[in-house]
Amino acid sequence: MPARAYVNGQYMALSEAAVHVEDRGLQFADSLYEVAAVLNGRLFDWQPHLQRLRRGAAALFFDGLPTDGVLTGIARRLVADSRLPDALLYIQVTRGAARRDHLFPRDVRPTLVMTIRGFDFAQRISQQSRGISVISLPDQRWARCDIKTTGLLPAVLAKQEAKAAGAFEAMFVANDGTVTEGSSTNMYMVNGDGAIITHPLSARILPGVARATLLKLARDNHIPVFERPFTLADAKSAPELFLTSTTAPVLPIVRVDADPIGQGQPGPVAARLAGLLWDEIERQTNWRV
Ligand SMILES: Cc1ncc(COP(=O)(O)O)c(C=O)c1O
Hints:
289 residues; D-amino Acid Aminotransferase, Chain A, domain 1; binds pyridoxal-5'-phosphate
């Protein structure tokens, strides 16, 4: 599968792509990223990814991000050149390359990298029917988790710890006992009335693109949604839990640590929401399993 890359104006094979060793993304994680899904050769939920990138760029005082039209043109060319039907498009923007100094360099242009690699979305369907397990871990990240920076070390360590424990994901728990989100996913519980509860948007969580789409679909289909915090104890006694992300649209959680959730099997609310999300994917991209 021909993985491709774009780096500062040039298109190439991914294996040939490189950035400067003094890039601030490398030295300071002074850098933003996005991961967008390509299904059936089409970008899914593309505009919200661009909006989040632009919001992050404003929060970090990045100057000179190309227009949405330019970014979309690059993304479309990578999709076309790769000929990959199902893929992940990765975007990274850094403040640029300059002599190492914490202070913002003057007259530096952002480094813009995009890559595309094949991705198997169909694997998620079988995971969805089996359900996945997670482990709870303390949320040790910084205080601006709403900005999608490449400063991902706490997430990397947590995901590795989850894998070592045989789990799919780590569920982050803040000092006050609140479940914030997963290491690379948003987290939800279902209450006894079949309503969805998820952490409200704040600096403690990433505003997931899949989260926004899922909550809209739920509301449009008269499934009640409460954006309010819930605790690890609430989660463990909930009838259903699930997570969402661009790479894992809706996955039911059937175990947290050693504790089964509900009957220890995927529940009806998560199954319905997964169906609604796959329908939306099909509507936007014509993708079918
Ligand atoms: C911490 C965190 N939360 C949530 C998500 C899900 O976001 P999205 O739905 O935009 O993929 C991600 C995705 O990378 C993430 O890193």
